[in-house]
Amino acid sequence: MTETEARVRDLMQKKFEEPEFSDCFLLEIRLLPTNKLEVFIDSDSGVSFDQCQKVSRYLEGYLDEEGWLGERYVLEVSSPGVDRPLVLARQYPRNLGRKLEIKTVDGEKRTGLLTAVQDTGIELEVSEKIKEGKKTRRVKRSHFIPFESIEKALVKIQF
What we know:
Strand content: 35-45%
CATH class of the largest domain: Alpha Beta
CATH superfamily of the largest domain: RimP-like superfamily, N-terminal
Distance between the termini: 39 Å
Number of domains: 2
CATH architecture of the largest domain: 2-Layer Sandwich
Oligomer: single chain
Helix content: 10-25%
Radius of gyration: 20 Å
Number of strands: 8
Largest sheet: 5 strands, antiparallel
Strand order of the largest sheet: 7-6-5-4-8
Number of helices: 2
CATH topology of the largest domain: GMP Synthetase, Chain A, domain 3
């Protein structure tokens, strides 16, 4: 982590102490070689465009005043899109009832419905094929997956 990224992390922690941002949290800060600073935030109740805009203005004030990135830089503050993986346990409850694609640290992949979130992991309802004689049928089984076993978790949008 660069010094600028550490400073931005500290500023975000202060911002999240404000009542309007109390359920917000920082997901990632990336400072790219092109002098582009990307800040990804999330919230237990969802991040609004207005909140992203306020955080952007807040950070711009410090970046401009302190000159951390020089005179020319690009700042992007956004919430994670559907293509970004879930990285914190507190992101899962908001996705209850949605289809997730999970890759575990041992390379196993499972796709199913997120049915429960516990302190130590998630319950994923997976549709599996079972063979009964010459016939094959589908059954739904619940699998507990500990958070420490999840390498990557993506929300799969259904149409």
